[in-house]
């Protein structure tokens, strides 16, 4: 079984997003989830610009950053 570099990025993104949901700390969850979403954006680009994948994950990254910044200001 052989995987292309595009598939590897997609599987890695999926794994990281799944791992993020195992986190108990919300800040850690958002950081790890953001990394997974950035990889999904790269995956969407590698799939000849799959716009639904890119838009969804850019939006999730923006939401995660918003809440991380909000939490850091209140701390």
Computed CA radius of gyration, to the nearest angstrom:
13 Å
- Per DSSP E runs of 2 or more residues, the count of β-strands stands at 0
Q: Please count the helical segments.
A: 3
Q: Name the helix and strand elements from N-terminus to C-terminus, one letter apiece.
A: HHH
Strand content: under 5%
Distance between the termini: 48 Å
Helix content: over 70%
Describe the structure.
The chain is an all-alpha fold and 75 residues long. It has a domain at 30-75. 81% of the residues lie in helices and 0% in strands. It contains three helices and no strands. The longest helix has 24 residues, at 51-74. The termini are far apart.
Task: Output the keywords.
75 residues; 81% helix; mainly alpha; 3 helices; flat
Chain-wise SSE layout:
Blueprint: H1 5-20, H2 26-46, H3 51-74
Précis, in short:
The chain has 3 helices and no strands. The longest helix has 24 residues.
């Amino acid at each position: 079984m052989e995987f292309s570099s595009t598939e590897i990025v997609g599987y890695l993104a999926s794994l990281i997003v799944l791992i993020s949901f195992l986190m108990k700390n919300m800040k850690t969850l958002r950081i790890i989830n953001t990394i997974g979403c950035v990889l999904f954006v790269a995956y969407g680009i590698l799939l000849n610009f799959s716009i639904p994948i890119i838009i969804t994950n850019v939006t999730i990254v923006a939401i995660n950053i918003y809440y991380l910044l909000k939490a850091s200001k209140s701390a």
